[in-house]
Design brief:
Two copies of one chain form a homodimer.
Chain A: H1 10-35, H2 46-84, H3 88-98, H4 104-107, H5 109-115, H6 121-142, H7 145-150, H8 153-181, H9 188-200, H10 204-214, H11 220-248, H12 254-285, H13 292-311, H14 316-326, H15 331-360, H16 369-396, H17 401-411, H18 415-427, H19 433-458
Chain lengths: 471, 471
């Protein structure tokens, strides 16, 4: 359709137009001439202005930092994917480390201060944290509840062994590391529980990605591994919430925290879940597209749930994860959020979290043979516990050695989940920066070894470049 | 498919499982017993811990604030939509005002400090700013380039009249307001240019929403109005960039700013646009889904473009808008970003911006009859300029009075765009908080009046609840 037909001819419009522009500019200068003789009406409020100007440059710093972080994450992720046949997320984590005191600050302190200035750090930190909250919500939303329900005794045996064994071995290792690396105010209980849980984490998203990449996610092996990882996720995060509660409860009453948690879970189960189910049914019966009101409600619920768990002393992450897990997974709304939100979160917010982690990871703290020995011990114990525990459990319930080992290797990937746990430990002051750096390197190593060892065990899969990254 | 079949029987697995759990708990307590006799290895670093603990509560504050903001925006937006037949965005802006010193702080200072504590303000501010940067990118991406190219002389005449007339009337009004409300350090040129531009802004998204709501977006009237608004957008933002450049150039050389801008535009046109076109062609020829690498590149470009314009002295918003406008609008990638990113931005980030604006808007500053008179004058001049200018221009190129008036009413909507301009003026210190409050109220009033007056002029449209909000 054409815009309105008018009776005018071109000339008339053009001359009107030209006249208007010239007249306008002329008129403005006349007005300005008079105006410049006027005095302003209010005294200057210089303080406000200066503060805001500083703020403007903060925006520039944050924009630049986000651009660099997003770009480097994708670049290194792509290199790891294409040339090392690794899930891109490992490269993204490495990119985060490169931007921190472990590499960039050593090579060029000036570039480091320019790209990630100290004034921008608190803002990047909050962006990273909100990003991880959103990500944990997505992890909860993708938690395969059907796999959990269908989980056989095989699955339960493997997954619990894959938590219990590294947990116990981790506690033993704490006996060795506590007198060496724990800080004075940290109790052995807190330190050992954290170390033990760090050993027990499995990165469900990385594991799922490796399976998809090999095209074996629907084989019996793949489905068992996925179910084990799902059970692991729930168990490990429950344990972690428990530990965070214990550590936080040094301040408040532990009993009250427990009461709060029970009330919270009850509200989630008996109020939030039915309401969400109604909402989702309403969205699905409507023939129209998903409304923004529905999306908005989901976000409000997610934010509130995260706020509540943060306030009662277990971390915001659990609230986000649980809201995602409790929210019905089917229907248009969940699908819409999974696809729409995931892009922004995975492409921009998660790399910010990796960079934030990288800024806190100082590999230089491992400055002695003893420290590297400790790192080696951590990695070895983590692998023996996780790989060994799962593989033995798999074998003991009757799997072939090859399948049992493959599951063990898959369960030994820790990826991003481990970084979330470690940042929590550092935030709470339970682990020192040195132990943090050791554990970050351990997470990278154990995740990195999965793909090549699977190649050895099962033969190389056709290298398919993976488009997306999460985990 | 079922998980791996195993040769085990239930009993064996269950007993193994029970044994493992009991043994594990027991073993952990043995380990703990030994560990508690150990001394930690490192002196306490209490400083770091304290800082991080404070940080954790910042996260809780930000989460709560975002939840409240998102919820109230949707609620008031829905009320305005359902009961007042207004685009939801007007209600969202009102929700933002309600959370600020204009309402909540008066009713309950305690609730205000609890929901939006001063410590959380800088973080909300940066989230709001990044949200508006993302939103302006989407506005650029939805800029109807075809409408711009097809724009007839009718369109050009109307849209330029709809800028020139309010611009000049705004400058005249500045003669009145400068001696009353300008702050001491602000030149008349800066003050008058800002006031003039604030009068000239049209909210393309609100206008488009009103048209869609009435189902007349494809009529000749609707298409003319859309084309006019698109031309207006480009003209007004160019003017504004020019003004911001002038205001900022008090510090740096104005000539250098101009050179930078020319170089920037040239790079965007001759480098970025062809590269983006190639990228988009590559994405479209692939049969697979849009890769996250492609999305990532778009984000990096957008962030860098915003960073560059912020650094050379025109605002980050222009870089985001121009990147969206220069990026090819067709193809899977643009579509994917439009749908996926828009949700998060419109549902969560934009309400944060409205709340941020609301926190800066103190209606109580209009504490005298004179101030309300000034607000009345601003609203009257804005409406006469924008509505009168467009309607007269429309009539002069041969439209019927009814159509010309309808276009005038539509062009008089300022909505969110005006808020963006005003926040910029406040940031730069060009307008005082009092003038800011007056102008925010003016923007609300002129946007609010469009729908009922269109009802009067053209008959009430069937009230259809609008699902989504933007503008």
């Amino acid at each position: 359709m054409e815009p309105l037909q008018t009776s005018s001819n071109r000339k008339r419009v053009l001359s009107l137009y030209a006249f208007a522009i010239f007249a306008a500019v002329g008129l403005y200068f006349v007005i300005r001439h008079f105006g410049e003789q006027l005095a302003p009406g209010v005294e200057s409020a210089a303080a406000g202005t200066g503060q805001i100007a500083a703020h403007g440059s903060t925006l520039a710093q944050v924009l630049l930092a986000l651009a660099v972080i997003t770009f480097l994450a994708r670049l290194v992720g792509g290199v790891f994917n294409r040339y090392l046949h690794q899930p891109p997320v490992i490269g993204e984590i490495v990119a985060g480390l490169m931007l921190g005191p472990s590499l960039l600050k050593i090579i060029s302190p000036a570039a480091f201060t320019y790209l990630l200035p100290p004034e921008a750090a608190p803002f990047l930190s909050i962006i990273a944290k909100i990003g991880v909250v959103l990500f944990m919500f997505l992890v909860g939303l993708e938690l395969d509840l059907k796999a959990l329900k269908k989980s056989s005794h095989t699955t339960l045996a493997i997954s619990h062994a894959s938590i219990v064994v590294p947990f116990l071995l981790g506690s033993c290792l704490a006996l060795l590391l506590y007198p060496l690396y724990a800080e004075g105010h940290v109790s052995f209980t807190a330190f050992s529980l954290f170390l033990a849980i760090s050993m027990s984490v499995t990165a469900f998203p990385v594991l799922a990605r490796i399976l998809t990449d090999r095209g074996i996610q629907n084989t019996p092996l793949g489905m068992t591994a996925l179910a084990c990882a799902a059970v692991d996720d729930v168990t490990a995060w429950t344990l972690l919430a428990f530990v965070v509660g214990i550590v936080g409860a040094q301040v408040e009453s532990a009993a009250m925290t427990l009461v709060y948690v029970v009330v919270y879970i009850a509200v989630m189960f008996f109020v939030v879940r039915p309401v969400m189910r109604k909402l989702i049914e309403r969205v699905d019966t409507k023939s129209t597209a998903v409304t923004r009101s529905a999306i908005s409600l989901v976000f409000v619920g997610l934010l509130l749930s995260a706020y509540v768990t943060e306030s009662i002393g277990i971390h915001a992450l659990f609230g986000a994860f649980l809201f995602g897990a409790f929210m019905p997974h089917e229907g248009k709304l969940a699908e819409h959020i999974r696809t729409g939100t995931a892009d922004v979160v995975v492409v921009m917010f998660l790399p910010a979290f990796f960079a934030f982690t990288g800024m806190r990871t100082e590999v230089g703290l491992l400055d002695s043979g003893g420290a590297w020995l400790a790192f080696g011990a951590i990695t070895l114990v983590a692998t023996i516990g996780k790989f060994g525990g799962s593989a033995l459990a798999g074998r003991s319930v009757g799997l072939h050695w090859r399948d049992a080992s493959a599951i063990g290797l898959l369960m030994n990937t820790r990826g991003l989940m481990e970084l979330i746990v470690l940042n929590l430990g550092l935030d709470l002051g339970v682990i020192s920066p040195t132990v943090f750096a050791m554990m970050v390197l351990m997470a990278l190593t154990t995740t990195f070894m999965a793909s090549p060892l699977l190649d050895l065990l099962m033969g190389r899969n056709k290298p398919q470049p993976m488009p997306a990254a999460a985990g």
